[in-house]
Amino acid sequence: MSDVEVGLSFQPLYRQAIELIVRRIALGEWRPGTLLPSEPRLAEQLGVSVGTIRKALQQLVLDGLVERRQGVGTFVATATRERSLFRFFKLVEDSGKRVMPGCEEIARESGPASAAERERLGLAARERVVRIRRLRTVDSQVMMIDDVVLPRSRFAGIESLEEPLPPTLYDFYEQRFGVTVLRVEERLGAIAAGEDDGKLLGVVPGAALLEIARVAFSFEDEPVELRSSRIQTGRYFYLSELS
Amino acid sequence: MSDVEVGLSFQPLYRQAIELIVRRIALGEWRPGTLLPSEPRLAEQLGVSVGTIRKALQQLVLDGLVERRQGVGTFVATATRERSLFRFFKLVEDSGKRVMPGCEEIARESGPASAAERERLGLAARERVVRIRRLRTVDSQVMMIDDVVLPRSRFAGIESLEEPLPPTLYDFYEQRFGVTVLRVEERLGAIAAGEDDGKLLGVVPGAALLEIARVAFSFEDEPVELRSSRIQTGRYFYLSELS
DNA sequence: TACAATTTGTGCGTATGTATA
DNA sequence: ATATACATACGCACAAATTGT
Known about the structure:
Two copies of one chain form a homodimer.
Chain A: H1 13-26, H2 39-46, H3 50-62, E1 66-69, E2 73-76, H4 81-88, E3 91-93, E4 102-112, H5 115-121, E5 128-138, E6 141-151, H6 169-177, E7 183-192, H7 195-201, E8 208-217, E9 223-231, E10 236-242
Antiparallel strand pairs in A: 1-2, 3-10, 4-5, 5-6, 6-9, 7-8, 8-9
The structure holds a DNA duplex (21 and 21 nucleotides).
């Protein structure tokens, strides 16, 4: 076994391999969709055995960072529209069928970040954010209001794009701004509909809404998006599967 | 490679090993907490190499069915009170700290299963269920109402136990009835508090509540418990982490 | 305290099967 | 048909953790 002892923080070789590969992806050296070197090549480059590389890549598959196809190779995972939709979108109908809502953008503007936004996005004082409000519709009925908050620093110029943003944002973030969303945290609660939300959703003020407060994280657990969704449940549910 | 072709349904050796081990756990031959044979012994018993057994066991660790400790051995996973609490209990405070609520049982009775209950629990006509209602409290304030529905066939005699059931049920199910919960599905929505719930929770009727409708599954995806929780959010949130 | 036995964790190497271009 | 890539399966050696002597 090679000795790659690194001072106080010893790590197994396959962990070190994981970190090296993740770093090259995070730095943009291997962009989403890129074909990685084959197992023997990677092993040679890193000076470890093929088995060690295999173990590292298998872990990266579990983390969702790469995809492997037998006979083809290992690719950096991409946020396709399909996967972008269903990876983090957990709304289902009564029957259990996944909902695929339409989208209507009704506002987009830049402004100073609030204290709460600065804290949750890790922004410095006086940094600006872009706020986007969109209505999600099913059968031309509004079933959800989405409020997205983005740090302008990471999404430069997004506030002045002419066309409405596409329905699925994470593939758009990736292609347009090089921002990869790896993980989201959602806090769910119930709130009473306010005047505005009630009007948009077509419910009386005070009606019970499901609220999802999401923070999306990229590499190094950097928060890159805040999102608040308010949903008129009854026909739709948030499905959580735990094991 | 050994030929273990099984007619039309070929499976890799490590998959077959997984199935054999799972079966012995599901049948109760290896009960929770049991020390499994060592890797070499398992390999010998199943007639495969140690590496194949290792791959199988690693997958079972990911599935949460076994736990491995270096220098000691591999154990069938047990639903300890600790893990029973936090594995499927996703309520957190504003700060992100996990909530550890108290528990007060206020009703337990046997009755005929409704059509919906029969369907979701996979019961035959005229089968009976046991219904348990409990209040979950924080700082002597009721923050959640839990309604648990169990098939009497799997939990014989639970309706006539004298003492109130323990706060964490899944370890109790396991020790007392040999029922192992492997997975839960939860559907979350917002509802308006009714008269009864409002009184118990100390909120006005019509207030927004978070409702969690859970189905718990055991081996072979057999549903073994229904649970409906209604929560007064504001101070508490349901935390969902997706990656 | 020291030592030995046992068990899993890590790492290497090789051969063969299967899917893809 | 050939070459390439990942998937499966086998074997071995040593490290690290634990337990009992």
